[in-house]
Amino acid sequence: MFKFYDFLPSGNCYKVRLLLTQLGIPFERIDVDILKGESRTAEFLSKNPNGRVPVLETDSGQFLAESNAILFYLSADTDFFPNDVFEQSQVLQWLFFEQYSHEPFIATSRYWISILKKAEEYRESLKQKREPGYAALAVMEKHLTHHNFFVAERYTIADIGLFAYTHVADEGGFELTQFPAIQAWIKRVQAQPRHISITQV
C-alpha cells in the first residue's frame, strides 16, 4: 500500500489525495504539519531532501515528490492521462503552467492569508501577486470559454492540477466572479465520480 505524506490544507497535497481517491487506490495517509517544521526533520528529509510535501512512498520503498510528478506517475495507463502523445504533451503543458504561472501567485497568497493568517505582514508581497495571479486566471478563462476541460474535452490530471488552488482562490484574495467559464468548470470537476473536498480524507 502507498504511504502518502500529506498536509491537509495544501492544494499540492490535495491534488494527489483527490487522484488516489478517484482511482480507488488505497493508501495510508501520514500527516506532516509543515507549520510545526515536521517537513524539515532529518527523518522527513531522508524521504525528500527538498523538505516539502507531498511525498508518495511506493510499496517498494521508493519516494516520489512534487505533486504534478506524482499525478503523472499515478495516472499512467488510466483514463486520467491520454494515450495520444500530443494530448499527453498538452497535459504536461498545463501542469507546467500551473507550477510556473499559477501556483506561485494564487497558492502563495492563500498560504499567507488563510493558512499563516498573516495577511497584514505580507501586505506588500500580496499586492505583487495580484496582477500575475489574475493573468493566469485570464488564460484559463479564455481556454475554458471554448472547452469543457483543459485537454481532449475530458477530465484529466491537467484539470486536477489546476483545480486544486483555483477553486480556493478566494482564500488568497482572488475574486472568481469575473470568470464565469472557470466557475462552470469548477462545477464540472466537482461533479466527477469520487470527488472529495480539499479537507476531506
UniProtKB/TrEMBL annotation:
Residues 1-82 form the GST N-terminal domain. This is Glutathione S-transferase domain-containing protein. Belongs to the GST superfamily. Residues 84-201 form the GST C-terminal domain. It comes from Microseira wollei NIES-4236. InterPro entries: Glutathione-S-Trfase_C-like, Glutathione-S-Trfase_C_sf, Glutathione_S-Trfase, Glutathione_S-Trfase_N, GST_C, Thioredoxin-like_sf.
